[in-house]
Task: structure prediction
Amino acid sequence: MPKLLCPHCLQPLEDSYHGECPHCGRSLENRNPEGALPFGTQLGDKYTVGAYLSADGDGLAYRGVLNAEKRFVLIKEYFPVTLCNGRSASGALMPKEDKEVLFKTSRMDFKDLYDDLHSLTPATGLSTILDVIEENNTVYAVEESEKGMTLSHYLHLRSRTLTPAEARTLLQPIMEGVALLHKSGLIHRGICPDNILLPIDGTARLTGYGTLALRTGGSELKSQLYPGYAAPEQYSAAEFSGRYTDVYALAAVCYKMVTGQTPVAAPQRKVRDSMESAHSLEAGVPTWFSQVLACALRLDPAKRMQTVPELMSALTDPNVANAMFERGDNQISTRKIMGVSLVVIFVLVVLLLWSLLGGSKSDAQPAATPQPTPAEQSTQGETVPNLMGLRYATDIKGNTAYDGYRIVMTEQNSDTVEQGIVISQDPSAGSEKLMEDQILQIVVSSGPNLVEMPDIVTGNPIWSQAKKQLDALGIVYSQPLIEDNDGTVAEGCVVKTSVVAGTKIQKGTAVTVWIAGPRDDTLVAQTGNAAEGNSASPEREAVTEGD
Result:
């Protein structure tokens, strides 16, 4: 048994958590709410549970202590309030009788998420997960705890909004961290000022991790969505979230930082989009910067900026930004405006010099015709090449024929164009090349819109729950019954599928799902699979295995 430490001051205690700490004088009595772990609970012989902090859809949060190192940590306990009947006298969670399968499934999702984060962190811009332990029929994630304040509190204390440069600098490590999450196949879905921590001595860090079910409307878990920052697809269980979901949230956070106002919540925008541009709210925000945020905050995920690196580049370089917001907009090209402006300025300068040198005198020689600059000479008469139909990796990338262009590539799903082939370009082929090193925006096919076949077999969930997962992903299915049920699986539960879990399939792909039919007592007698408590009734089909 580890030596007891005061969860307030980390000083050693003699025997128990009663009375007041002899070192700091603070109370050691349990004041955590009913249902939460008692103050002073020991976990895994490594951690001491301190004060209860908060609750969300999939768990409770506590202040804690890493005993061996005498330092504070945050402890997140998987405790889905909608699926539990509380905890036993020993501290073990007790799932509701008709929610046992969902409890186990979401508990597994919780553990998988934090296991992945544990292996991924520490990393720039991400709060570190120190440990993941299983105890009390549940899972605990241990996260680093640093002194500081949330971005929300920081913005509240400021007397003015942040400049775009300040906002970009502050968010840079967060965006790098989110890009790393995406590269590892994870999506945060809960980015907001409350979940961004600003340590006293260090870079900003993203916290507030949560499972998919917690961040999706219509889930049986208590949803935790952040109005103004949650993307519209998060409010519907039928819509699929992706990297673009976090892009929306990051842009919303940046919008808040430079305007001082929280973006209009997505459901409200879908009824009537009244959200003003960042530039209209704060004149100091450049138009191009404002347009980047607008592009990243589009309601339609297909029309939204797709990746975090794309967002980072656009918020940093106005040339990249111009190439992005030109595409698909019925606006005058910013590049063309700049080109015309340069020509006008050039002519005015020539006229001014001519005037100063006495060009208005009758005996003066006629002014020489202005000659094009070297850059203009190199592009005069040159047109934009046709990249449509070319393969980006082999025909375009690294090809010296396009050295006179700065090619900006984005990807887009396509059911008709092979992966890696250019779908569209801007400026269009044959248009005049305006300048050396001109930006050429291309859209490359990323192939069909694939989704991952979910695991709806492990644990033999009931069909109604499995169906929701397939519907959310757009997977078509059939559901024949298995006539021969030897009692191994309860009636109405999923037995197997024609596509293995984890397989990438196109939306609309037909998948066969086999559902257990009524139990055949003759087969039960033959196979000896009759298990106590394995009822054919759908209300009893989810039997929790002992942990």
